[in-house]
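Predict the 3D structure for this chain.
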Amino acid sequence: MDTMDIEEQDPLATGLTEVDGRKRDEDGDRPGCCGRFQRSISKWMLPEQSRNKYLERANCCPPPIFIILISIAELAVFIYYAVWKPQKQWVTLDEGIWNSPLTYKPDMRDEAWRFISYMFVHAGVEHILGNLVMQLVLGIPLELVHKGFEVGMVYLAGVLAGSLASSIFDPLNALVGASGGVYALMGGYFMNAVVNFREMIPLLGVFRILVILIIVGTDVGFALYRRFLSDDAGMKVSFVAHIGGGIAGMTIGYVFFSSYDHKLLKDPRFWLCIVGYLVFLVFAVLFNIFLSPAP
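Done. Predicted structure below.
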């Protein structure tokens, strides 16, 4: 009876023993580091009703390869333009990234790959470090829970939404950086933290929401400063990708990350978000072809 009472009080107990492949013994044997790590991840990333299912099948196969590979690629491109291309300093790169075939430039928007490839190019050390830290700290736990396909789709949806939004609302300025993808991950996680506030441990819920708001406020503040107030010479970079990526995350990202234990294709919210995203995509393409003031 005592054992049953303990299990009823702790809904994670059964999941943990199944993950470890053994039950707790009478001496109170605890799960190993892997079990405790997975339990912590489940508390941060999932509402209570989904945690047991995650703990039953939790493993690192496949590992969080998408976020790691994207981060390595972004760092490699930055090092290429900072080291192999002539630069006076690393803090703010100029000529190399301005002439890069990866940078989104409004007068070259007919080269459609630039709407995605701009995520690999960053304007300086501060820019790339901020994006890498945020996407690794948040993206790896998300990918451990939701796997690479879901996280990759949300990230790339944010990147594309960011460049398209910039081409509409800030059409005369260039765009570099992975902020659209990073903000999509944060937007999806933020919406889940808000909607599932009570199920995701209220005290942790307050903390995670405050942390996201502080990070977003600080990062957007720096982006606005660089865009409107900085006297640094060189190109002015659009900040609208932050907003476009965040909105993509709060819609598509929210649906992907909230459908952990459900059939995504049977979720009407999924189709609503997909249709809305496609409408925005078509409008943005038509705007860039017929209405854009950019040359």
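The radius of gyration is 22 Å.
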